[in-house]
């Protein structure tokens, strides 16, 4: 747990993310319930086929939480207290939601090899240091465990690349970095890609499911 919220604000970009999600929190569900629904549903469908203790990093307002099967124990973290407040309201009656707390996904306070499943939906491109976050998600996953990411991964060509270039100038305000190629994750030696799926709308998002190798 991050006891001192000041610890989170290490640099301007972290502050920008916190400020952006403090602004988004009151209206987030209204804008993002539907556009991000398919990715959440796809990721949770994979998680629900597995067993054990699940970490959802960047759980936001908790829109995925009611979708998890009761037999799974779910821990959620997010850097934004404003987003988490909304999440807590949604699941006060769900005993399998073990814990929802403020934490930086780039500096998780959990020990190595702790969770059976780690999932992050639409998070990798909203953090200042995505490589550090992926490293942390991998670290806290048990060997043989599963890491699932849903995200938009940037491309060098095609209409989305034009869109990404256009959005770059608003990234700071929106709390989103539209440039993150999937090759940055596929290069990790301990994460073996098992499933790659395109996710609506318009195949804008991709689900990647990895197994963590033993060594
Ligand atoms: C686009 S939202 C996605 C929320 C949720 N996963 C969903 O499907 O709606 C990104 C979330 O990541 C959180 N976030 C950003 N940086 C983070 C960090 N370093 N550690 C943990 N959460 C972070 C934001 O506060 C926000 O709730």
UniProtKB/TrEMBL annotation:
CDD domains named in the record: AdoMet_MTases (cd02440)
Family matches, as Pfam families: Methyltransf_11 (PF08241)
Keywords, alphabetical: Methyltransferase, Transferase
Domain Methyltransferase type as annotated: residue spans: 55-149
PANTHER family named among the record's database cross-references: METHYLTRANSFERASE
Coiled-coil positions: none
Source species, domain of life: Bacteria
Name under which the protein is recorded: Class I SAM-dependent methyltransferase
InterPro entries reported for this sequence: Methyltransf_11 (IPR013216), SAM-dependent_MTases_sf (IPR029063)
Keyword flag Transferase: yes
GO molecular-function term, one example from the UniProt record: methyltransferase activity
Annotated source species: Roseibium salinum
Gene3D superfamilies: Vaccinia Virus protein VP39
GO process terms (BP): methylation
């Amino acid at each position: 747990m991050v006891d001192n919220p000041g610890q989170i604000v290490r640099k301007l970009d972290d502050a920008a993310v916190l400020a952006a999600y403090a602004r988004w929190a009151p209206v987030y569900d209204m804008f993002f319930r539907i556009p991000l629904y398919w990715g959440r549903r796809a990721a949770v469908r994979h998680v629900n086929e597995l067993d054990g203790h699940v970490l959802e990093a960047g759980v936001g307002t908790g829109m995925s939480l009611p979708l998890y099967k009761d037999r799974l124990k779910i821990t959620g973290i997010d850097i934004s207290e404003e987003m988490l407040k909304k999440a807590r309201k949604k699941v006060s009656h769900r005993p399998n939601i073990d814990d929802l707390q403020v934490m930086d996904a780039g500096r998780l306070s959990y020990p190595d090899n702790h969770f059976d499943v780690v999932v992050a939906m639409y998070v990798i491109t909203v953090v200042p240091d995505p490589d550090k976050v992926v490293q942390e998600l991998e670290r806290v996953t048990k060997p043989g465990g599963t890491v699932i990411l849903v995200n938009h991964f940037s491309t060098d060509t095609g209409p989305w690349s034009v869109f990404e270039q256009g959005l770059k100038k608003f990234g700071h305000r929106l709390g989103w970095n539209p440039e993150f190629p999937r090759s940055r994750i596929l290069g990790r030696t301990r994460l073996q890609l098992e499933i790659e799926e395109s996710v609506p709308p318009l195949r804008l998002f991709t689900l990647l499911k990895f197994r963590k190798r033993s060594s």
